[in-house]
Structures are given as structure tokens and as C-alpha cells.
Automatic annotation (TrEMBL):
Sample GO molecular function, one term: acyltransferase activity, transferring groups other than amino-acyl groups
UniProt domain N-acetyltransferase: residue ranges: 6-178
Pfam short name (any one): Acetyltransf_1
CDD domains found in the cross-reference section: NAT_SF
Taxonomic lineage: Eukaryota, Viridiplantae, Streptophyta, Embryophyta, Tracheophyta
Name under which the protein is recorded: N-acetyltransferase domain-containing protein
Length: 378
């Protein structure tokens, strides 16, 4: 390449932490005409994988120059027809290559090196998530590295305002104990695609704020309610902060004017955009499940409850939920269309020859089953 030999090695926190933080900031400059997000990892470059069972970060160097990074995590999940079908999967995230060194195979080399680590740890499938319109990422993983489309989940984003949402008096809310939540998830969601076998570790993690259930008032949770719903909440803002960059002037003016109008004339219900131009955190809703004819309403009530909880937080500006593209729960989860992503893209690759036939079944079958999105991978 004319710049020395490319070296890919494991991340060394003592030597690499500051270098990786500086590198990440430079990589998130973004297109001149596009809104983008800055990520502040709060001094911990591996914060997004630290809570996973097994994880690794790789760095790429040319000479003494840091030119690329990638992260990966490994876990055991259900696929196809659990509980008999389990798979060890490796998640790829955080791939960055310096703009000065792109189109030289560094990205491919980082992915291949991470796949080698997956294989050494007996991983069945590697998978990744990207924006559907991210042409560079799709070209790398699908065209060059043989990944195939797996799922197109929906990402729903709802801003948090200081105005409290109304909770229906006809609904009873209950916070579940960790043991109870784990038992219910294993009973009703163990057949969900990519359900993590270590769900108990997720629920017991300090970032998991709790699990709540909703059911019609007058009925008993200890019995079998005619309708019920449940969800859990993860505080991603404790791991890293986000900040909006390069927003158009009109967006900035609307934010400031809507806040002023709401303050001076509170009766005017003008949608107020939070201040995304300063670092902010967010809550992630996961494990959404519902049953019964009124369950859609109960999901909405739970989301309103989470909103009210988030409104008491100093830095939580949005609530994010990601569900399978065919999951009808998305119709009942409050969100702003302008902030949400109707089709995220998950791609997957079999890392063992014997798994290639099952991969065909996994990717060609219509995604009618629900998808469990692990909050540790957000």
C-alpha cells in the first residue's frame, strides 16, 4: 500500500483508549448536507460491547497510524424451532476506517480478522446491522464478504418532553421481579428469533431499569388476564451520549421557537423537539410482548409510562424501540416518523459449512416470527 504493512491486533486499553476516541470523533464528520450523530463513549471505547458475554475490539495500524477499528461480541441464541435449535452468534459493530485510507481493503481485513476470532470461539453465524441505504456497508458485507439479508427491523424513536403522558385509569401497571420477568420471557418469547439464552443476565444488569406488565384494571395478574403486555427498559445513556450534528437552520429554529411557545402558551399543543444539539442519553425498550384483544392499548400505556419515567431524567431525550419488521406491536408504540427508521437491515453469514443449509432456511423464510433485539447491542 506504500504505507508499510497493515497490522491488525487486539485493542489495548492503556495504549489505545485515547487514540481510538480521537479516531472515532474524526470518523463521525459525516456528509456536508446530511444530519448525523456524534457519539461520546464517556472515556470507554468498548462501552457498546462491554456488557456482552464475550467481546473483542480490533485496531488496524499502518506504521504508527491508527486507520481502522472494529468490535464484536458473542452470545448463544435461539433460531428456527427452539429449544432444540440453538446457535452461537457473533455480532459485528463499530467498523470504522479512516477516510484517508478507504478503498484499500482495510475494512474487509478487519471483518475477516474478527470472523477468525468468531470461528476460534465456535461461532455458527456472524451478523451485522446497518442502515438500508448505507451503500458502502451493504457493498462490503453483501457483495464482497457473502453476507445475506436476514431481517429488516423497524427502529421507532419517540422524543421525551417534560409534559407527562396520561395513563389510563382502566389499566393496572405492575413492576415485575427479575425472577418473574425471566420466567415469563422464557415461557412466551423463547421461540423468538435471536432470543438470548442469558436473558437473566440482561435483566439483572445495572443498566436494565426494570420490567413492567400492564393488564385491565379489575383483573388479577396472578391469574390469567384477558389481555396483557410487558416490556423492559435499558438505560443506554449510562454507556454513551449522542449529539446531533449538521442539522439545518430551520430545524434549530423550530426547536427553539417550539420550546418558547410551549413555555409562554402551554395550551398550544405544538410538538416540541428536544435539544438534540447537546449531548443526551436515551432509554431503549426491549422485550415487548403482548396477548389478548386489548394488548395493543396496553403496549401504548406501557410506553407512556416509560415516557413519564424518562421525563424525570436529566439527560434522556428520546426513547428507542426496535422490533421485527412484521411485528404488529410497532403500530402501538408511540414514535415520530421523521426520527424513526422503517427498515433497518440485518445481514448474516454462516461461518460453518454445516450451517449453510439452515442459513438458507433462516433467510428465505418470510420473517413472520418476532425478533428479540438485545439491548446490549444497541
Amino acid at each position: 500500500m506504500g504505507y508499510g504493512e497493515l497490522i491488525i491486533r487486539s485493542y489495548d486499553p492503556q495504549y489505545d483508549r485515547t487514540r481510538v476516541e480521537d479516531f472515532e470523533r474524526k470518523c463521525e464528520v459525516g456528509p456536508a448536507k446530511r444530519v448525523f450523530l456524534f457519539t461520546d463513549t464517556l472515556g470507554d471505547p468498548i462501552c457498546r460491547i462491554r456488557n456482552s458475554p464475550i467481546y473483542k475490539m480490533l485496531v488496524a495500524e499502518l506504521g504508527n497510524q491508527l486507520v481502522g477499528v472494529i468490535q464484536g461480541s458473542i452470545k448463544l441464541v435461539t433460531v428456527h424451532k427452539p429449544p432444540n435449535d440453538l446457535a452461537k452468534v457473533g455480532y459485528i459493530l463499530g467498523l470504522r476506517v479512516s477516510s484517508l485510507y478507504r478503498r484499500r481493503g482495510i475494512g474487509s481485513s478487519l471483518v475477516i480478522k474478527l470472523e477468525e476470532w468468531f470461528i476460534a470461539n465456535d461461532v455458527d453465524y456472524g451478523y451485522m446491522a446497518t442502515e438500508k441505504d448505507n451503500k458502502a456497508s451493504v457493498k462490503l458485507f453483501v457483495d464482497r464478504l457473502s453476507y445475506v439479508k436476514f431481517q429488516t427491523p423497524t427502529i421507532l424513536v419517540n422524543p421525551v418532553s417534560h409534559r407527562m403522558s396520561r395513563i389510563s385509569s382502566n389499566v393496572e401497571l405492575a413492576k415485575l421481579k427479575v425472577e418473574e420477568a425471566e420466567a415469563i420471557y422464557r415461557k412466551f418469547m423463547s421461540s423468538t428469533e435471536f432470543f438470548p439464552i442469558d436473558i437473566g443476565n440482561i435483566l439483572r444488569n445495572k443498566l436494565s431499569l426494570g420490567t413492567w406488565a400492564a393488564y385491565p384494571r379489575g383483573e388479577s395478574w396472578g391469574g390469567v388476564p384477558s389481555s396483557w403486555a410487558m416490556l423492559s427498559v435499558w438505560n443506554s445513556g449510562e454507556l454513551f451520549k449522542l449529539r446531533l450534528g449538521n442539522a439545518p437552520l430551520s430545524c434549530l429554529m423550530y426547536t427553539k421557537s417550539s420550546r418558547l411557545i410551549e413555555k409562554l402558551v402551554p395550551c398550544v399543543k405544538l410538538p416540541c423537539i428536544p435539544d438534540f444539539f447537546r449531548p443526551f442519553g436515551f432509554y431503549f425498550i426491549y422485550g415487548v410482548y403482548r396477548e389478548g384483544p386489548l394488548s395493543g392499548k396496553l403496549v401504548r400505556t406501557l410506553c407512556r409510562f416509560v415516557h413519564n419515567m424518562a421525563s424525570k431524567s436529566k439527560d434522556c431525550k428520546v426513547i428507542v424501540t426496535e422490533v421485527g419488521g412484521s411485528d404488529t406491536s410497532r403500530l402501538h408504540i408511540p414514535h415520530w416518523k421523521s426520527l424513526s427508521c422503517p427498515e433497518d437491515l440485518w445481514c448474516i453469514k454462516a461461518l460453518k459449512n454445516e450451517k449453510k443449509n439452515s442459513l438458507h432456511e433462516l433467510t428465505k423464510t418470510p420473517p413472520t416470527r418476532a425478533l428479540f433485539v438485545d439491548p446490549r447491542e444497541v
